Fold each of these.
Amino acid sequence: MSTRNFSLQQLQKLHSPEARVVTDALSPSATPGQVETAATMLTGLTETALKGNTAAQADYQQLLYILSLSDDPATALTRRWLANAIYRVEERYMPSADLTTPLSEEDFEQRLKQEIAAQSRENHPMSQYVFASSASREQLKVFLRHQWFRTFRLYRDAADLLVNLTDVDEAAALARYLYGELGEEDERSSHPRLLAKLLNAIDLDADFAAIATMPEEIAYLNNRARSFRNPDAGWGLAVFYITELVVPGNHEKLYRALLQAGLSEDAAEYYKIHISLVPPRAKREWQLISRRIPDVNFQNAFLTSLSQHFRVERSYYDAVWKELQSVK
């Protein structure tokens, strides 16, 4: 197992006082006092960032990325506890939905459709450019490299959501999703492996220990992890809904664009399989949402999380679009 994405190795490359405090808290000999000191420091750093300090914004997002998405099991419990200190601050600063009475299922679904129509990545100029088969092979490589960061750990985020589903029927529904995501009876057909095959076909390295460096990508991945981990499942179900029940509807367009660029059907299998997966999956997994809709607190959590996801995603897609336009 590669240790490149282990937390202490990453922290050693940072030279800020905050990174040293977190390093001390994650060391095998850390005392409870050192862990508490790190949590207090991270809380203050996040407060400063969310009040508009851009340097603090970059610092806390980088530290949160290491805490949330490193691979080392030895520090996992402490990292999760420290990340939660940041999550609590972030959620206090987010604009909140303020429904006082629950919408009907029909009205709630209509509101989701309206928000998606207005803010979905499908309408982003980069998406339109790629869908239209206008991207060169080098530009497709930029797009797919970032697709890798969005995808290869997604099953782990979904597993966090599964842990928060205490209803056995809901857990079974999400477990079926994970079963398919991880290849059912053949791990070689897991979605990360299929995407790895696509990356290899276009001469990209499918690195399962890859570490993101784009600040907007780091913020996107941090937000997704926080949402799926929230004990209130409404936060995670909102991001699950948009990433797994809505976004895959674009995969047919991406599949056609890749074939137009000269890739084989076999190489593009990752996108091809999503074309048939979307309709049955959408119907089955909407039940995870619909049964909770009568609860106004669920609706507020879901809508707050969805809006935050769109804000972070727009910034992220803008940054990837800028990078894609910089190559020919």
Note: DSSP finds 16 helices and no strands in the chain.
Amino acid sequence: MKKIIPLLCLALLTPGIAHADDIGSVRKKVPEFTASTKQRLFDLERCIIDTDNIGKPWVYRQPDMPERVMLVWESSDFGDATVLEINGLDNAQLRFWGRNKAWRKIQTCLDQ
């Protein structure tokens, strides 16, 4: 019994590992959409996270680059990985890789 439980746990985790996305390779591709806005980075990020029906992204930040944030959604609803990069504290530049469904929700935050 003690040997079966670890094997069962490994079997349950293996499909998740096999389908993990390589965010770096996604970001090497040409973005599906780009945009710029005069909104502040943190206001834009807050709006995107609060938007209904877009899911909740993982938020990646690096301490030495406060003007950059990357939001990543991993969901079968959006495809493999949906990535949004936002650069610029005051005049944000956006690069987006993913499905139109998520981009349409993000655009509502650009118009505010």
Note: The longest helix spans residues 4-18.
Amino acid sequence: MNEIKKLMNKTMLNTYVFNLVLGLVLVIITALFSNQGVLAKLAFGISVAYCGLFLSLYGGKAALLQKFYKTLETEDTTQLKVVENSVLLNKSLVSFSFNIPVLIQYKDITLVRNEDNVFEKARPGYKGNHKIYIKAQDKEALIPVSDGQVANKILNFLQTQNSSIQFQNKTTEFEETELSSLDNYKVSGRF
């Protein structure tokens, strides 16, 4: 459970860190010049409001995550695999996608789409990120993966868990895949 909390908190912080740091820098800079006139005081007020807005958004999302963690208490987290912004469990998937945490049971998944990187076909030797889009009733998740091989392993695992899933852009034949045969996958940055 601690691994899931750590991943979700880190992913949420990455969503807001740029705006929080920018807001803090703006507050500091405008505070230095706030006694220079009306426009400087106005700039200081705007920078405080900007920083306050993102602090409140971050605080609200942190409270939402705390409620979400309570829903995970019944899940079996003894065996898990981390894939970028998501955690694959024995019977469910936990993800922080589209700026919200979601818990999706494999049996509820209706559609899985593999969105490959178009530049891989146009430029020989080019490797780019792929994305796996998962839809289940009223929930959805988007998982970035490093390449097509990783995507196909995850698609095979999902098909092993639920054979009635509709797949789009699946390029390989089905091969039964268990959770234990997957690795922890991380998308490394291009720079």
Note: The longest helix spans residues 38-71.
